[in-house]
Q: What sequence folds into this?
């Protein structure tokens, strides 16, 4: 079998031919002087109005994505292990780089609609309380939609109430829970409901990863989360609301919380 050389890409097409083909389209620079280059003699995309490989198409802004324990450069840091200045006064305590649930909800000062939320949480080890309150907490959006936090590694609670469920509505696609005492990671992309003339036009939707695994994909939110009952409709006031971490008399701990407006 003939080996691919420097001049080929392993499928019988010499590289110099690809270069010659590319040169059929003269490179031009963007009109705004940004230095972005591309083509202007290619077909227009019907959905965008721009040419294929158009240098004048708006370029995505550069964002430092951060890393372990470090938020992206365009994020609002809600908790970095130091204080709860981004939250309304509460009785939650901060120590050793984490915030611990005590009494009452922990609620952000700002309101959020479409957003990407990152947080890390840890349930008590050994588990505390009865089986209905093992690592029990939640992340609340729009004043009433709860993404459940729960020690679901061993505790076999009902599927729409386990970790990462849209509480009382939709179980996660998989149970990605780690053992009690280990840090868990939630990455939640929430789309706010859209109302026109006071009527719901588009429901809220969620895409979510739990410990890196997809657990909700463009999942419809049917209303507020209700224990042992059907969801109640969202209203226009809920399209933008503070985010809250709940408290169910269980000392769940949180760290590295940040949010991006979308």
A:
């Amino acid at each position: 079998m003939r080996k691919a050389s420097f001049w080929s890409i392993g499928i019988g097409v010499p590289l110099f031919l690809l270069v010659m083909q590319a040169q059929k389209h003269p490179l031009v620079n963007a009109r705004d002087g940004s230095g972005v280059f591309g083509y202007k003699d290619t077909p227009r995309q019907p959905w965008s109005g721009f040419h294929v490989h158009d240098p004048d198409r708006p370029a995505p802004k550069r964002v430092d994505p951060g890393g372990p324990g470090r938020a992206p450069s365009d994020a609002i840091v809600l908790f970095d292990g130091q204080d709860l200045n981004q939250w309304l006064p509460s009785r939650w305590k901060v120590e050793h780089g984490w915030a611990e649930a005590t009494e009452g909800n922990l609620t952000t000062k700002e309101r959020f609609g479409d957003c990407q939320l990152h947080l890390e949480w840890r349930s008590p080890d050994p588990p505390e309380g009865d089986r209905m309150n093992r690592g029990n907490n939640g992340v609340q959006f729009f004043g009433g939609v709860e993404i459940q936090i729960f020690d679901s590694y061993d505790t076999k609670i009902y599927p729409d109430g386990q970790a990462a469920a849209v509480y009382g509505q939709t179980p996660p696609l998989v149970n990605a829970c780690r053992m009690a005492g280990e840090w868990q990671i939630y990455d939640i992309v929430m789309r706010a409901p859209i109302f026109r003339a006071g009527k719901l036009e588009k429901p809220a939707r969620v895409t979510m990863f739990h410990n890196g695994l997809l657990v909700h994909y463009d999942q419809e939110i049917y209303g507020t989360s209700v224990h042992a009952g059907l969801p109640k409709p969202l209203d226009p006031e809920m399209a933008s609301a503070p985010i809250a971490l709940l408290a169910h008399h269980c000392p769940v701990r949180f760290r590295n919380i940040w949010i991006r407006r979308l």
Q: What stands out?
A: The radius of gyration is 24 Å. The first strand starts at residue 28 and ends at 29. The chain has two domains: 1-59, 76-261. The chain has a mean pLDDT of 92.
